Amino acid sequence: MKRIGILTSGGDCAGLNAVIRAITLRAIQGYGWEVYGIHQGTHGLMRRPVDASKLDLSFCTGSLFREGGTVLGTTNKGDPFAFPLPDGTLKDLSENVIEGYRLLKLDALVGIGGDGSQDILRRLAQQGGLNLVAIPKTIDDDLSHTEHSIGFMTAVDVATEALDRLQPTAASHDRVMILEVMGRDAGHIALVSGIAGGADIILIPEIPYQMKNIADKIQSLREAGRNFALMVVSEAVGTETGEKAKIMDLEGRSRYGGISHHIANRITELTGAETRFTVLGHVQRGGQPSAQDRVLASVFGTHAVDLIAQGKFDRMVAWQNRHVVDVSIQQAIAGYQAVDIHGSLVKTARGLGICLGDENF
Ligand code: F6P
């Protein structure tokens, strides 16, 4: 009998519980293995006693897999190779994590995470000879070699619903309503939700914009008899001169946020239009996973366990051309999936007359 561990690492997103369920079902029903859920990513393996609990079939029968978040907990800070101690110094605790894997007597580990987490988990696996299989998750959808990562499609649904809710206010008040969405340096959420939600203007980090083009678009809408405009802005879009809007927390960590405020003011200056902005934030990460994310989670979880059964490690499961495949983790994290500015979605947006901020609309 094998004993496998599961951990979720990095920012949460919808669909994580559905992956944990799929792994557990496949491992117990398909192979008769034992499954351990490790709490709070690699932190659970650092703690003594190791912070993990045995998952059984009762975990899979409830409604948990329909819920957002991760029942195992997660963290996007505390890199074990440079772990921050209370006195402010950094310590390499990688050997503690490796020891935790051995103490749990694991034969393999399934790590569910984005590129940063997979990089850390892979380095740990290489150092300690751990048998690792990775599952991609991130609302940003920026991992290469997979068409989608878990959480992205739910985030798109949430952003699309937000646009549906903003449109009536835009029309009722003759306003330009701006929705700022997450996505880090990739504009996938903005582009896809913007098309789905009927946006007139979409700004993504991959396409530099000029305010003049946005003002012209709003003017052309007015001339066509439209009294409002709907706009989606990705959080990593900067000012026209390329400065990013960032929020600094008290621990000195910065993250994107707030560019829509600047853009709203610039639109008012240039067009006189009344503007409002909404920063959607973490709403995109929570809530029930969409049907598509539940299916992807089920496919990925099942395949990850089958890889372990075949003794195939250092692999990331991926979705390509309507099939589940696996690629080397190294390959997956070495690449980056930005929006293809010559791809079908950008062409579609342009074809619909959506302004992407450049001259090309
Ligand atoms: O990577 C996922 C993500 O939600 C990004 O889209 C966003 O920029 C960031 O994480 C927010 O991180 P935090 O949860 O630390 O605020």
Structural description of this entry:
39% of the residues lie in helices and 19% in strands. By secondary structure, it is an alpha/beta fold. It folds into two domains: 3-150 and 289-320, Rossmann fold (3-Layer(aba) Sandwich); 155-285 and 340-351, 3-Layer(aba) Sandwich (Rossmann fold), CATH 3.40.50.460. The longest helix has 22 residues, at 152-173. The chain is elongated. The structure holds 6-O-phosphono-beta-D-fructofuranose (F6P). The site of 6-O-phosphono-beta-D-fructofuranose has 12 residues, from β12.
Give a short overview.
The chain has 361 residues and is of the alpha/beta class. It has two domains: 3-150 and 289-320, Rossmann fold (3-Layer(aba) Sandwich), CATH 3.40.50; 155-285 and 340-351, 3-Layer(aba) Sandwich (Rossmann fold).
Distinctive features:
Rossmann fold; elongated; four-stranded parallel beta sheet; binds 6-O-phosphono-beta-D-fructofuranose; 361 residues; alpha/beta; 12 helices
